[in-house]
C-alpha cells in the first residue's frame, strides 16, 4: 500500500519545520528565554509600537549569540543539503556528497595554512580563516574538475577518481603543514570537526551573497537534473548538453559548499542524509528535492546544533561529531539499500 504524499503541501511543511527548529534553537541555552518572549522581542524591533519583554542581558544573548548561530546553522545546513542533492543528481548516485570533488581537502588546507602561519590575520572585520577555507574549497574542486575532465573526457567516473586523488593530496599537504606548529593542532582539529559558535553576524553577511547565488542556481537546475537522470544519450536527444549541465551544477554546488565550510568547518553527512530523506518524502523530482533539501537541511543542522550544545552542557560537542553519530549508520543503510537495488 503506497503512502500518498501531501501534494502542494511539501514546501509549506518544510518552511514550517525550519521555522520551528529555529525558534527552538534560540530558546535552548542556560539563559531562560521563552518562545513567546522571543517573538515579542523580535516584534519590538519592528515599527509597531510594541515593547520588548527582555532585559539588556537577555537581549544581548538573543541577538548577538543565539540568533546569529541559529541563522548560520540554517544557512550552512541548507547549503550542504542542496549541494549534496545537486551532486547526487549529477553523478546519479545517492552516496555522493558535497565534499566529493575536493572541497573538504581544499578548505581544510586553506584554514590550516592561516591557523599555523598567520593565526591573528584578519582583513578588517573579516577573519582570515573563513576566507582561506572558502578559497581553498573552490580551488580544490577546480583542480579535481580540470583533472577529471582531462583524464575522463567529461565522464562522471573520471571526475570521481580525480576528486579522490585531489582530496588525498590536499589532506597530505595539510598534515605536513600541521607539523610546522604542533601547538596549533587543537585549533586545527576544532575547525575540522565543525562548529557554529565561532562567528557572528559578520560571518552571516560574508557568506550571504555566495550562498544566495549557489542556492538560486541549483534551484533553477531542477528540471535539467531530471532530464540528466534519463541518461546522457536521452538527455542529448532532448536538446540538453550533459557536460554543460554538469559543469553548471558542480560550480553552483561547489560555491554553496565553499560558503558553508568557510564559516562552519567540515560538517559531514548532511549532504547525504538530508537529500535521501527528502526523496523519501517528496519523490525523485529534483524540482521538489532541491528546495526541500534546502529547508530540511537547515532544520536538521539547527536541531543537531541544539544537541551539540546541550547534551554535555556546559561543555559543547563539535557539531561534526554529532552529525557523524547520526550520519554514519544512515550512510550504511543507504549503501546497503543501494547494493540491493543494483543487485
From TrEMBL:
Keywords: Cell membrane, Membrane, Transmembrane, Transmembrane helix, Transport. GO terms for biological process: siderophore-iron import into cell. It is a multi-pass membrane protein. Signal peptide: none annotated. The chain crosses the membrane at residues 67-87, 99-121, 128-147, 159-177, 245-278, 290-311, 317-335. It comes from the Bacteria. GO terms for cellular component: plasma membrane. It holds the Pfam family FecCD. It is found in: Cell membrane. GO terms for molecular function: transmembrane transporter activity. Belongs to the binding-protein-dependent transport system permease family. FecCD subfamily. This is ABC transporter permease. It comes from Marinitenerispora sediminis.
